[in-house]
Design a protein that fits this description.
This protein has 149 residues and is mostly helical. The chain has two domains: 81 residues, no CATH class; 37 residues. Helix content is 81%, strand content 0%. The chain is built from four helices and no strands. Helix 2 packs across helix 3. The radius of gyration is 35 Å and the shape is flat.
Length: 149
């Protein structure tokens, strides 16, 4: 069985194919960038409709009509979103109000962080400068003493 040959590997994509792929990707991204003013609201509408659809189906099975099911589902999601935003907003206001209590602690931690990072770097840089200056002083200083013959 001398005629058995190893399978040949697939050829690498040509530079032309890669260039066309890059150009196609660039064109798609450019179109998405230009159309973002239209595409973002459409995308949000699709996402919201996917969120509301299960609740609408449940309300329809219970016996409400299509319009009332949609209105109730949108109100439920609106109230839920509003409640979540209210809770987060209240926590942000409370955190902002208590910031003066923690200002000293935050400053101390930032000072410690600065000392451990930038301070260490300054110390290492200073030591390196001293070593370099010592080396340059030794090489630049003329030799004193008897000359070797």
């Amino acid at each position: 069985m001398d005629n058995a040959t190893a399978p040949t590997p697939a050829p690498a994509p040509a530079a032309r194919d890669r260039a066309l792929g890059i150009l196609a990707t660039t064109a798609v991204l450019a179109l998405l960038y230009v159309g973002r003013d239209v595409l973002i609201p459409i995308t949000l509408a699709v996402i919201l409709s996917l969120l509301v659809a299960p609740l609408v189906r449940l309300l329809r099975r219970i016996g409400l009509g299509q319009t009332s099911s949609v209105i109730v589902a949108v109100l439920v999601f609106g109230v839920s979103f509003g409640a979540g935003a209210t809770v987060i907003g209240a926590q942000l206001v409370r955190m902002a109000g208590s910031f003066p209590q923690y200002e000293h602690t935050v400053r101390r931690k930032l000072t410690t962080l600065n000392t451990l990072t930038v301070g260490r770097l300054s110390l290492i840089t200073g030591q390196a400068d001293r070593v370099i200056s010592q080396i340059t002083d030794k090489t630049a200083a003329p030799r004193t003493g008897p000359a070797a013959v």
